[in-house]
Amino acid sequence: MKNTTTFSIPVLFDVHSFQADLITWYSKIKRDLPWRVNQDPYRVWVSEIMLQQTQVDTVIPYFNRFMERFPTVYDLANADEQEVLKSWEGLGYYSRARNLHTAVKEVVAEYGGQVPSERNELKKLKGIGPYTLGAILSIAFDTPEPAVDGNVMRVMSRVLHIEEDIAKPKTKKIFDDVVREVISHDDPSSFNQGLMELGALICTPQKPKCGECPVREHCLAYEYGNQTDLPIKSKKKKQTTTEFYGLVIQNNQGEFLIQKRPEEGLLANLWEFPLMPKEEPSIEEWFKEYNGAEIKVNSKGETVKHVFSHVIWEIEIVFAHIKSGEIKSGQFVTAEELKDFPFPNVQYKMMDNIFRSNLG
Known about the structure:
By secondary structure, the chain is α+β, with helices and mostly antiparallel strands.
């Protein structure tokens, strides 16, 4: 097979032996995870979306609850988005849930409720990128398609001593092509899951357990003794910090003002206590212009911090009440009713402060 990447697999690398050693090991030690009970493409799809940016142990209870509530594509397609977001609450990266919901509706409408097994059809669905595409095709449909994530790049960079910077987007194609060349055509499901498992359990970022590695004899980095130097990954740009006031506003009945975030962008369609940029000169004036009513600031509370992948939010809590006028957006709810709405984690950090202050 002609290699079209900038990396050539060493001539002496025994692909078939590598496949056999990896698959044999995986079949013996694979973790008992709820999405592995069968090859149902819907379950595989949901699990792979949840596992993006999220640890396995965190995902397990969410996956079980989600599948109990939405056991089929039809259940999820017919659900209200707010219900879907509430089921996702706490997992973060909520665009994953919205994209999954949209894509499942398309599966029901266009494919009769059957997750497509054809590559070009599956890749058209919203939220399915190259990794998820490869995972679904290989795990659910036994198609020899690469599923390359950070774990896989780390493993293959060490096994084949690939010294390209994995932080660069163009490097992803090198690993896609390499995995496509070495993947098992007899059992691509076990091969890809074996690579993922190896990266998660053995070939870890720090202190890899080379003594327990089933493919150690194939690993060039182990042979050279520089496995901890790989993969090469340049540092990300430093995150920026944005400062807000988090407005905890109550009416005369003691209810709290919450509002729904915009339909697009960060934390879309989730609910929140109003956030005001700190660069605004006056809280009262900003709120009146922004939402119509006059408020009176009572006190300030703690500052909560939340780290996203690209930005850090620092929110100083402000307690206030409505003086006069009608709000233009949002709604007032009781402390008990707050649990019925999907909130992002950063807002729960605010709630902890609120109820420690005995306002609820």
